[in-house]
């Protein structure tokens, strides 16, 4: 019984892949004999595939009327995500622009948006349901609404939407700002100009220094890679094909699968997202286990669904071409040269692209079509007898299932045409395999005794050899050297000359040197030469160099760097820290947040980190915030955005300036949150939770001003009902949500005794019995995934304990006794009086 599942799963996979790669090497007549003998003994519950015309994924794009996106539509979509949004003014302008762009580019009409939102509302309700029954009701309503929406929306629109989403996911919002490492505290031209307007007139030295930074913000001197660098831009033919395929597959899935299967699929998705926080998670797991125990129906439906995907011959060829293009596009994106990134080995990536091009026809479109058809047929024809054979192979006395599974395979193979068989035969050959040899090998396994480990090893070794053969076909001849090269400091001063020592050659993981070996013991070493890195012009540049190994190999590399005019100012990579008693001041993301009314004199009394200033040649000067040579000037004390000028007088002839962006906030802007964390607590217990005192930041971020640790009892919460629930907490002069998972103490672990003295009697009369009214205990809870959570504290009334040294037979002025409870104990002093 050793490794039954480890062996059987590869066998099933091989039979599927044999279906994927089969039909070659044997005649249709030889297989048809097997089909005739087996058809009378196998019964299947499969359904016939959905009939319909073949879909052309390469057809010309459909025509759609232009649409405009309204604020009302944006608000509807926003309310689906956040129900308390009541006005478009509450939505960030960047989000509004993104949503409107998605609507316009995918030609979604107002009616289509309403249909999609109706379906999405049911989906959201199912995800947030408190029980599987409630989720099932919502998910059941979702599928007809989705079908209605899909019947209104065509595949081309799905493709256009996908194209925009993929582009959006690759968009780096920081590209609209200058990269880090150039100037401290300012990221945009608006901030730079705001600081110049605030301080230039009063501080001529400031203007002289900050004029040297003008090229960072003028838009004429880019200081980082282009916005398209490293991005994969999906072509229109590709997105149209994808959209049409997704549209067809979704509609067919709704028709093929049973409601129970569709509901369980969405519930399983909810479980994967929420994990242990899903209220009906255990019900989902139970239903998954039931499906796994009897998977016949779902396997048949999967087969029917796969076979329902009928597309033209040209569409399969297009899928092949699009897949090859995507692989090459992904590798090409890896060649992107980025600021503050490792150097790129162009020699390796160019060779890899050439290798991919040479292998793109190993699997053709016709072969892909046969692969899909055979896999679908195998699943569609999978019968009760096949399932029983698999179950018997995994029993205490395993029975060889190969004959039964070969019969399944042969029945499926018989549905292929001669042309399809020829395509699969060619695929086997292209992969360095012989269909006939592989087929005969599998047939020979019918004689193996599955109760013997030797039989399993025979199968395992053969599967490994097949995998190795296939992998060798797709293994490039040029291996990538196990080395990373970095420019130590990617910002250089105008006129500087880069030398090899400016680069770091890393030959190991995580900074631990583990050099490759040449022969048995000689470490492989690397050197850098032929550096080309002009530094006469300001801005971002690409440089090149040659990396040579001691084995004689050479590689051409490319890297990115910035050329600047000066280094004077506050260290651009400095992250200031500010700590105040109650969050009146905080520095986060290089922005200073000040509560209204806090003066600069008061700010100096807080705990503020020392500030590193650079001279023109990068000589560092570290200055304490309280240093009298450091003066502070605030551009405005009113609520809103402002700038703080830091002027360090190094000498009578040199003052170094720096600017920090400031947000002055009003108390009314402060709110409290638990950041949607789920806290565990025992029923009727109490627990300490994390609460964050926050405000909205200047960069659409959330800023934590102070970390608070109240108990839920002080927030007016009584955890009386088991399960996950959101409670209203009352504290700090406001109301906010707290999400609790209330668990039964009986399924928890007692970690310690927290308190006992208030409930322990210590003065007794002669003959009086020991009295302990309660114990306050600390609990923990281990979820189904094995994660341990603090479950707070709770009381055990009149606990059952054992005693040592406790005696009240005679008066005692002072005595010591020990109390034992579970694995814990404590001692106490007591008195006995007459």
Describe the structure.
The protein has 834 residues and is an alpha+beta fold. The chain has 23 helices and 32 strands. A hairpin with a 5-residue loop joins strand 17 and strand 18. Helix 12 crosses helix 13 (281-293). The longest helix is centred in the middle third of the chain and has 22 residues, at 313-334. It is globular. The protein starts with a helix and ends with a strand. Mean pLDDT is 90; it is low at 1-45 and 509-519.
- Segments where pLDDT lies below 50 for 5+ residues? 1-45, 509-519
Q: Give the DSSP E fraction (strand runs of 2 or more residues).
A: 15-25%
Fraction of residues in helix: 25-40%
- Separation, N- and C-terminal Cα atoms: 73 Å
Average pLDDT metric: 90
Q: How much is the radius of gyration in Å?
A: 35 Å
Compute the number of helices. 23
Number of strands: 32
Query: Shape from CA axes?
Result: globular
Please give the largest β-sheet: 5 strands, mixed
Structural class of the secondary structure composition? alpha+beta
Q: How would you summarize what this structure contains?
A:
38% of the residues lie in helices and 23% in strands. The protein is an alpha+beta fold and 834 residues long.
What's the topology here?
Elements lengths: L3 H18 L6 H11 L32 H11 L11 H13 L4 H19 L3 H21 L2 H15 L19 H11 L4 H8 L2 H4 L18 H21 L2 H16 L6 H13 L2 H12 L5 H22 L9 E2 H14 L5 H17 L2 H10 L8 H12 L4 H13 L4 H10 L8 H21 L10 E4 L3 E3 L9 E4 L10 E2 L3 E2 L2 E7 L6 E11 L4 E11 L4 E2 L7 E2 L5 E4 L2 E5 L4 H4 L3 E2 L2 E4 L5 E4 L6 E5 L5 E12 L2 E12 L5 E3 L4 E5 L8 E6 L5 E7 L14 E9 L2 E10 L5 E7 L7 E3 L8 E9 L5 E10 L4 E3 L7 E10 L2 E10 L1
Parallel strand pairs: 3-9, 13-19, 21-25, 27-32
Antiparallel strand pairs: 1-9, 2-4, 5-6, 7-8, 8-9, 10-15, 11-14, 12-13, 15-16, 17-18, 18-19, 20-22, 22-23, 24-25, 26-28, 28-29, 30-31, 31-32
Helix pairs in contact: 1-17, 1-19, 1-22, 2-19, 3-5, 4-7, 5-6, 6-11, 6-12, 7-11, 11-14, 12-13, 14-17, 15-16, 15-17, 17-19, 17-20
